[in-house]
Amino acid sequence: MDFTSGLNDRQKEAVLSIDGPLLIIAGAGSGKTRVITHRIAHMLTQGIPQSSILALTFTNKAAREMSERVRELTKKKLSNLTVSTFHAFGVQILRKTIHLLPGYRDNFSIYDQADKNALIKECARELGMAPDTLDLWEIGNIFSSVKTFRHKWDGDTKIYEKLFHEYQEHLQLYNAVDFDDLIVRPIHILQENPEVLESYRERFRYVMVDEFQDTSMAQYRLMKILSETNRNICVVGDDDQSIYSWRGANYENIINFERDFPELTEIKLEQNYRSTGNILAAANGLIAHNTNRKEKELWTGTGYGNAIEIYYPENEQREAEFITTMIRMLKSRGEIEYHDVGVLIRTNSLSATLEDAFLNENIPYRISGGTSFFQRKEIKDLISYLRIMSNPDDDMNLLRIINTPRRGIGKRTLQRIQETAQKKNCSIYSAISALRYASDSGLGEKAQTDLSDFVSLIEYYREMVFTGKGIAKTVQSLVDAVQYWPYLIGEHQKNESTARWKYANICRFIEMIAQWEETQKEEGRKASVYDYLNRITLITRDDDQDDDDGKVNIMTIHAAKGLEFSLVFLAGVEAHLVPHARAVEEDPANLEEERRLFYVAITRAREKLYITSCRSRRNMRDVLVCEPSPFLTEIPEGLIEDHIGEDELSTEDAVEALSALRAKFASGS
DNA sequence: GGGTAAGCAGTTTTT
DNA sequence: CTGCTTACCC
Question: Of A296, A387, A502, A604, which residue is the catalytic one?
């Protein structure tokens, strides 16, 4: 089978270069995914076993899409092909090797941002550091930088060093790791255990990394250590689309890569197959304002297409109205399907107004970002129960549910137990287990019974979930046993529909677990709680993979990376949002990254791009007067149709504008 | 000891 | 507006 037909020469070259280091600089819309998937397919035809290939991506979605597309191409079952995110790959390594780290067992918990903050707070309290005077976010970031080799303790940060060690010790005590650990711990394990490293190198003889511009220093180390001897490493990226530096992404990795693998082949993909000439010219013109970039110019063989249109609605409600009206109109004229449309925003908070408008207008939409399903309180509660069943030493999760729903264990009691735990240097759960029958516990009789009941509850369900009753069944039974439904009603007395909605979420959650268990069984894998928990911690959003058809996509620009839509609305393109005031304030050098972000946004559009910039916008309490984004002036003249003179944009105006547009379409321009 | 009401701060982007 | 902490009351 030939997997190079239909590709251009550069793409072909990329697909056929299997051995040795390869750097592919792939501009927006240059068929990057196509190249990667075809390359993998080609490798398989060359007799390279699936199990030798490791493809690392940035998001779960990208991973899923990639393996899906390779499967379609090859029409083979690919159960041994490893396509995963860096973090998920880290989990995979840890599941096998974490016992090599002192104090850790393989039922470890993974802490997300929220857990992490809670733990930092907890540690600060223990050190007597007045937690409310601390900026947990900032500290969290410092801890991250230190962990991932980006930062050493210095004059400014030294005051947190002690807190950091406390934090690390607690993680170990709770048998827990944070997100950074998922990358960093595997590196340490591989470095310190040559035989383990050797086995991984033997296994993964071909490594590919997608979205290379967004890899962090730590991630780079991980991929490097794996491929240093085989040297079959292929990285694909675009420095112009590097938009995650705040999370440690280091576009200099491209330079590091050239240094560490000097014999590399470099291939540039500059032909754009996605956007019209106009859109591309706008994007090129904009990004040319950045100084620090690899020179490249995207080009397209297709025509210029429609002008980019900019509108200036009075406020965010009018903006939402404009967008929904446009969509409605184009849809009713059969020009678009809902799923052809992307509405892109800088911040999640901008989605609220849009969502309202879409609901009002009855336009189906899908929103990604924001609090994902798994972050909802009722779901997190249940996950915490599962966590405690699988790893009782996990104090953070224990504290979360020890009195949820209320079972009469109050803060006083908790404080006592925590003190005991601290004294004995053990987890809260062990402290309770030891205390509950002790006569000298210093606790009241009632407290003791309540605690005892709690431990029995956990033990009962722990037993249940591990003896093959199934996770879904266990959770269902647990929900009944702790009377979660009455609890929900009690919590939302004024608002029974919220209670019902939350309960529906729980049912959906249980269903999702059941489904997962089913698939695991079908594929002949054991459906262990550990695996389930590890998996869902890394899922942030887009859990509903199947029903994205027939819906408009509302998402942040970050979330839109790697996607494309025929029609794109770019909302809230105002001076304080694009570039985001906070980002620039933090460091003026961030301006270039903000520009890249805007570049990514523009290049998502295939045929038509609407930009809206509100003249005022409600921000929490007050109304802000807004200016258009300065980036708009960086788009070359002649590509834009500016509707700046048009006063107050009413729905009728939008309709009118649309008829004009329609006329233009008809005249074939 | 435990629950409740008032008071207050708040999210830029995500694995 | 909301969700969380704090202070207060049962």
Answer: A604
